[in-house]
Amino acid sequence: MLTVDEIKVSYGEQVILDHFSLIVADREILAVHGPSGCGKSTLLGAIAGFVPISHGRILLDGTDLTTMPTHRRQIAMVFQDDQLFPHRSVVDNVAFAAQMAGMARRERRAMASELLETVGLGGFDQRSVNELSGGEAKRVALARALAASPRVLLLDEPLSGLDPELHGRLSTEIVGIVAAAGIAAIWVTHDRAEARTVADHIIEMD
Amino acid sequence: MRQRRDPNRLPPAFVAALGVVPVALVVVFYLFPLTALIGRALGPGGLRGLGDTASSLLTPQMGRVVWFTAWQAAISTVATLIVGLAPAYVIARYRFVGRQFLLAALTAVFVLPTVVMGAAFIAVMPGPLERSVWAILGAHIVFNLAVVVRLVGATWQHLDPRLESAAATLGAGPLRVLWHITLPILRPALAAAAAIIWLFTFTSFGVVRVLGGPGRTTLEVEIWRRATQLGDISAAALLSLAQLAVLIALVAWSLRTQRRSQVSLSLLPQRPQRRPRTGTERAAVYTIAAATAAVVLTPLATMALRSLRSPDGFSLAAWTNLGSSEIRPGIRLGIDPWSAIGSSLQSALWATVLAVVIGGLAALAIDTAGARGRILDAGLMLPLATSAVTIGFGMLIAFARPPIDWRAQWWLIPIGHALVAVPFVVRTTLGVLASVDPRLRAAAATLGAGPIRAWREVVVPFLWRPLVISAGLAAAISLGEFGATSFLSRRGTETLPIIIERLLSRTGTVLQAQAFALATILAVLTTATVAAVDALIASREDPVDAHRR
Questions:
Q1: N or C: which end of chain A has fewer CB within 10 A?
Q2: Would you say domain A2-204 falls under CATH 3.40.640.10?
């Protein structure tokens, strides 16, 4: 269970999040809905730990994450613009977390290959990430996040910019994968219909 | 409540470790020599002993030096802008056969050693004008055309031609469109180009050492003459200091005005070049392109040809006796050309390694150290505002007394060259580092990479490209470096530019042919270095660029 307790984030004078709180249970998808610029991405950054907070706490199953650096939090994220590593192949993007954990090259590539199959990108291993379509890149980003075996998955507009057909298919896929992995997820979107389809609960931000 | 400390930041000790070598270089080989120079300038022999030094400086002859330095820089700048406007337009707007070649030729000429350009103008100018104001202005124009074509051309590519069409529909003829619409929009780029060209020509040393003479002396050459020919160190130091103050003030002023005048133009996407449509258009484009190529390449081609001339006509002598230090019975160089080539290559190798390692470390430190990084950034840019002559002169003064009498050390020259090159390495590398999205590091962190690991995995891999580019640049700078080397050069280890200038300073067809042969070799070496780097870069895709697409 992830608890965000009264956190505050400001950039200079501008307050982005003012004493904001939420709770997500395991196996649950919480949708955060609101217009663009309302601080949804900032919220995810604060939970992941790369946006500094000036007040409040973030707890995961009772452990205080507030001052813990990002790489120890076991919180993975699918960035809105994917943030795939442009100098690495598809498979080495997905295998990144395993590499950080010290897994040998052959094993982690096999593991990543399998995950690529799961997201429907079997055979994409050696492709350059710069040649992927929007939907393919999104699925690589998802596989890369899942490969970290996170305890919480953060999804920042994971379906934005996709065509309607892909939009529907991928949203179902993601929901299935999150359920199978048995983790908590926060799904940020500006699309109310999307929020209703995928989430167990919805939080409105403005 | 205060912002909590970012738990993802790189450990301060790590950032400090990156910066320590660059800081040491700047302190020992730049700030300390500069302090020594200031000490000499303001000390008993200099400003404080007002009588002697001041009276030796406040002479009509010094007035003529200052006046010449200023007006030749002004005329060179204006003339380069005027001459460069047409090729800048043609290259920015049109696609034509030879466009890439013309652009490459202009750029190659820009990185040519100053001494080579001087030699080329001695070769191409008719006898009485060989060493004249006209030769100096010509060399400055050809040298700096690339600045106009690149800077002004870049803005021109972003300028929507429909603006000009709109003006035309309102009754403006082509010239009035140019005057009322195009030039005002190009003004920031023109000003930036003018500032750079003025800076280069005001501190012109190599070209003026070769082509100048009594009455055609810039401040830089006067500093060198007083320090090394007349032994008047204090007066030379005072002149250096005065020039440095003027340059720093002007660079600061031009940076500020540039920042203020940056208009929203950069937001327009770059427009692709098109083929000339009508016959007239085609004729104009090709005439301008051909004329530009001729202006740029004729001096160099003439120089290569004249290396084959002897008093008795055609001769390969200049190329066949490269191994001998005796150019003509009785005239010895002190070093044979092959050894000079060896010295040049050795200096260039070490200077490149030093510049790339130190510049790369510095760029990483600046990129990661926040406010303190900006101090290092400014510190490393100082050698750029300081002329190479001042750098070499400062080192000569500072390292003259035991226990740090380093004047005879072979590594002093590569370090001097590296100091000149480091600012370019830092600029090139920082530009790339700044374009790496910080969220890539955040992404790596969410996948379990600690701060140092994340930095190594997603920032460092982007370095090879700017470092290769700057290695080429550093090698080219070192190969042609003449200002600092003039002070640090020792008998027996002279580099090519020193030898070439020495040969050209004497008269006689044989000596000149020898100089032209060596200048041709130096030109080829420099161009080949830059071309090799270009080829290497082109053969591998840039991850940052690919990403942006």
A1: C
A2: no
